[in-house]
Each structure stands twice: as C-alpha cells, then as structure tokens.
Amino acid sequence: MSRLKSGLAGREAANAARVRSAQWMAVFSSAMIPPLLQTAEYARLALSIGQDVDQDDAAKAASVRVESQAVVFEPGRKFAFVLTEGAVRTWPGSPSLMPAQLDRLAQVSTLPHVRLGVVPWSVEAPAFPLHGFTIYDGAVSVVESLTGDLTLTETGEIDTHMDVFEAFAAAAVYDDALRDLLRRIGADYRALAST
Question: Which residue in 146, 169, 149, 170 sits closest to 46, CA to CA?
C-alpha cells in the first residue's frame, strides 16, 4: 500500500503516470465521480473534504489531477467507466457545483472511445459495491483508500474485479438514457442549491 509520504500532489503525480502508461482502463466507482472525470472544483473538494490536509497541497494535487485528464481525449486509448447513482448523487461542498460536474459526464459520454454508464438506484444491484477500483490494461487493479492505494496484481483478484465491473456495467444505462438520468439528477441539484 502506498502512503501519502509525498503529499497529495505527489500521490496525484504517481496516479497520473500510471494512467498515462495504460492503453485501456475500466473504472468502477460507487461513492464519487472518478478522478479522470472530475471538474476542477469537484477535484479540489474531493481531495480535501473531511481530511486534515494542507490546502496548498490539495490545490496542487487538484491541478495535477485535472491536467492528467487530457489522456481521456487522446486517440488510441479506451476507457470504460461505471458509476452507481450513489456516486453521482454524493457531492462535496455545495450542490451548486454538481450541474457543471454532470455536464462534464454527459460531454465525456459522447466520446467514441469512452463508455460511461450509471447504474440507477431503481435497478437491483448485482453485488454490494463495497469500494471502487480501476483496472489498468487487465493486469493491475488499484483500490483507492483514505490513506493510500492498494495495488492488486494477482490474476484471481483482477478476474474478480473484472467480473464485478461487468456485472455493474450490465445494469447501467448509457448514451441517451444516461444523459436523461443526468438531467433529472441535475434538476434535483438545482432545486437543492436554490433552497
């Protein structure tokens, strides 16, 4: 398990290097928007909310995180993201930041080399989503924890994560149905922000 020895910015730089080295990624998230899809404000809050962190370090880390997102737009790579509706409905800070975040998800969902789905709360969950994970090139799965990342390389562990990913992917909505769901959730956030 890697720790936060080099601070949040160092951790984000290491994560960015791992992302750059991958040709395809499968990302499952049950609690938050995945780092590659976060707006700058969401990233800053996600890195600091509920934690005793240096705010300058958090700001630098958010900058590194947002810069690393350029890989999502590079040709020759493939990305698959599956989120639970709970991940989309859990927000840091104010609900007013979420419509922009949902717009970002809708935009990314139109990229030809990106598959983005959300599992609605109204469908039966295929498993308990105990934690999120990212599978890199089918060889490594990384589980992010509060204090560092757990890197799994055993074939059985990778296979289990891929099976869970595929099960949630089969329950997710995509394309126009996804964007309709995001619009409904966005309306809820706008209502919350206005109260």
Answer: 146
Residue ranges in the chain assigned as alpha helix (H) = 7-21, 40-48, 55-68, 85-89, 98-108, 155-171, 175-193
Query: Any idea of the CA torsion for 138, 175, 112, 45, to the nearest 10 degrees?
Result: -70
Task: Report yes or no: 145 and 121 within 8 Å, Cβ to Cβ.
Answer: no
Confidence category of residue 3, pLDDT binned at 50, 70, 90: very low
Q: Distance between CA atoms of 181 and 158, rounded to whole angstroms?
A: 30
Q: What is the side-by-side order of every strand in the sheet holding 78-84?
A: 114-119, 78-84, 24-29, 133-136, 140-144, 149-152
What are the backbone angles phi and psi of residue 152, rounded to the nearest 5°?
-110, 130
> Could you give the CA distance from residue 185 to residue 195 in angstroms, rounded to a whole number?
16
Q: With a threshold of 0.85, does the pTM exceed it?
A: yes
Measure CA 119 to chain center.
Answer: 14
- Give pLDDT tens digits for 144-192: 877 778 999 999 999 999 999 999 999 999 999 999 999 999 999 999 9
φ, ψ of residue 94 in degrees (nearest 5): -95, 145
| Cα-only R_g, the chain | 16
Mean residue pLDDT of the chain comes to 90
